[in-house]
Amino acid sequence: MMYYSRLRLLGVAGICLMGVLLCLPNFLRSPSPSLPWRQIHLGLDLRGGSYLLLQLDLKSLEHDRLQSLQDQARQTLLDRSLGYRDFVRDDATASLSFMPRSDAERDAALKAMQSLPPVVPNEFTTSEKDGRIVLTLQHEAMLARAREAVAQSIEIVRRRIDATGAIDPSIAREGDDRIVVELPGVSDPERIKSLLGTTARLTFRLLAPNPSVASPGSTMLEDESVHTQVAVQDHVDVDGTDLTNAGAVIDQQSGGWAVTFQLNSAGATAFANVTRANVGKRFAIVLDNKVIEAPNIINPITAGNGQITGGFDARSASDLALLLRAGALPAPLSVVEQRTIGPSLGAASIHAGVISLLTGLLLVIAFMVLFYGRFGLYADIALFANLILMVAILSLFQATLTLPGMAGMLLTLGMAVDANILINERIREEVKRGRGPLQALQAGFDRATGTIIDSNATAFLAHVMLFVFGTGPVRNFALTITIGIVTTLFTTLLLSRLLAVRWYALARPKELPV
Amino acid sequence: MLSRPLFRFVRDDRRINFMRGRHMGLIVSAVLSIASVILFFQPGLKLGLDFRGGIIVEAQTPGPADFGKLRTALDHAGIHPDAVQAFGSPRDVRISINAPEGADREAQTQKLVDGVKSAISAAEPGTQVLRADAVGASVSSELFRDGLLALGFSLAMILIYIWVRFEREFAISAVVTLILDLTKTIGFLAITRFEFDLVMVAALLTILGYSTNDKVVVYDRIRENLRKYRTMPLRELLDLSINETLNRTLGTSMTVFLAALPLALFGGSTLTGFATVMLFGIVVGTSSSIFIAAPLLLLMGEKRLRKEVVAD
């Protein structure tokens, strides 16, 4: 006890010094960009900003896949000259079914269906029911597709948000089918919401021979330029995935805004073929199931570029160009939760948090000195070190600090002195029992250690649970408390003990100040 | 000045006979907890946005807020808020709307926020939006489930830990006491009408953690004394243990209380409720360590705990 080894002393001092160094980047400007300058990030509730939780539309993903599977199935049957009738697509059960032309062709048709290439392993099952052949999408496989789609969507969401000039956005997956977007400093997320709420799937399709009624193989869609319904063929001639560039320009003829686009070579070839074969007919430019415009094909378009004029203004033209450049989402995203904190509220929260933290700290410090004298002062030094170490660890992980997180730090400081109180009460008891100062000091620390570990272990477990199951603000609260428990064990069991021992070695008191 | 503590809560040699009041303590606690459970069902908790879904917009108008004007503006926009109320200063307005019903309620919820924002800024130009939250129904039910899971798992972990480290009687008395603490806190929430949201779940869990910590310290001393005084009757031994740890129990409660107090006073709207509930929980947790946890142990373990120790 007296011979607190030099190594341990250096270790404790080293960790405290390290803590101070790790805290510094939060208060200073980085002198050189090459230095690792790790800081605590302020949460949106403190700096102001917007939080959006986006949900991928699984149903639409399923619907799209069913549709493409149906196209593939029909083509395969046609290629193998197998006949069918009554081909049904059922979104509710995520299945397709048809009746083979004759019993003799049933096995061949089944084989043909089994030969269809799945996009992900075990994507669908093929079976026979009441003479019909049934293809059913598997839920597990669709979830795998959803995860893939979320990964793609994150990329596209990032490109779209970056293009708006938002600073420091954070975009992350949550669960199987959700994306969290955090936009510091954005206090009006309306534009970003509408950008993210657009799938931006651009297709070029011919109008049905009679555009005023729906016929097999075509669908009635809203024509936004003239606000009427037109029948558009389901077959997609050119897809937006073939776009290489898009931009907003002022149309030379009309003087209004337009969006120009450039296709890659595959797209350009397809576009040239369609326009050459259909001169004089109308084709529709369809964005997310709405017709932007449906012009006549006057000349074949072979260069692979074109222009969309659809009653745009400067904002909508540049937004559409942005969406087309960033690419289409694999499925629609919808906002299921949004939280916006204005900058003034954030500043007020920081103020409230810091005032509370400092007042609380002062009250606890004063109480400890009054209640325990010299050892109370040592507990206060340990408390201060505790605060520094907490900030250091949070900086090291570049963690986010929210208002509940600050509350967690404050409560940790309140709880931290509990360990010192346990130790001091023990020392006092040992003194009352007639032990000498040194023995009392030693016994006090040793006996209190078990109790301290027991009582902190339960709190630790409770908050780890909170961290695992909690969301958002609660997680941050649990994180700071969990870190705080670890730093508390260090500062009370090692640092305040060291202070007491050094004081004893220097002062050699006849009795302890307890 | 540093050489002596300036004050103590109780003199070290004071022996208060806590066990004499054990029946009273248990009865009072049971009555309060039963009343709390009744309050939980009627009138029930005021669910916060996290758990009920819907929207809240908080805004600051340039001059004193004209509620009639704002209500009319919202009405014209086809929005029917459940509450338009003042909070903080006379310029601060809070508009809350419960989650709409219907098939596309998720989309409706998100649309409402923009509607409210544009309606109020049209009615009162220069209005600053402080906060605008919209939580869809599916998200709120998930948040609620996760909150309850966190609470349940924490209780289970505490039970297991105490069971492993102490004996069965200790673990059961501790968890029963914790449940009594928890129900009273929920009753407090029902009376004060603080909104029950995610941050409140965190408060409940912190109270649980703090209260457990308190019980562990007292139990630790009881366990130690059980070994030390092999013939002392359990009742006397519990009293001795509580008295020996009394200064510590009160001292720690005091520091946690002092730490939470500024949060309750200056923490701002998010933290005031949280910290007030914490303060209540600290008082309840501390008193239950003395008046409930130990008497329960006496009730359950009078024969078993003492006999076993004497036997070996």
Radius of gyration computed on alpha carbons of chain A: 34 Å
* Strand order across the largest sheet of chain B: 3-4-2-5
Give the low-confidence spans of chain A: none
Q: Class of the largest domain in chain A in CATH?
A: Mainly Alpha
The backbone outline of chain A, from C-alpha atoms, is elongated
Estimate the strand proportion of chain A: 15-25%
Q: What's the alpha carbon Rg of chain B, rounded to whole Å? A: 25 Å
Query: Which runs of chain B of at least 5 residues are low in confidence (pLDDT < 50)?
Result: none
Q: Which protein chains make the most extensive interface, counting residues with beta carbons within 8 Å of the other chain's beta carbons?
A: A-B, 81 and 80 residues
Oligomerization state? heterodimer
CATH architect. name of the largest domain in chain B: Up-down Bundle
Shape of chain B: elongated
Helix vs. strand class of chain A: alpha+beta
Helix content of chain B: 55-70%
Order of helices and strands of chain B: HEHEHEEHEHHEHHHH
Number of domains of chain B: 2
- CATH topology (level 3) name of the largest domain in chain A: Multidrug efflux transporter AcrB transmembrane fold
Number of DSSP-assigned strands of chain B: 6
Major beta-sheet overview of chain B: 4 strands, antiparallel
CATH superfamily of the largest domain in chain B: Multidrug efflux transporter AcrB transmembrane domain
Mean pLDDT of chain B: 87
Subcellular location (chain A): Cell membrane
Keywords (chain A): Cell membrane, Membrane, Protein transport, Translocation, Transmembrane, Transmembrane helix, Transport
GO molecular function, one term (chain A): protein-transporting ATPase activity
Protein name (chain A): Protein translocase subunit SecD
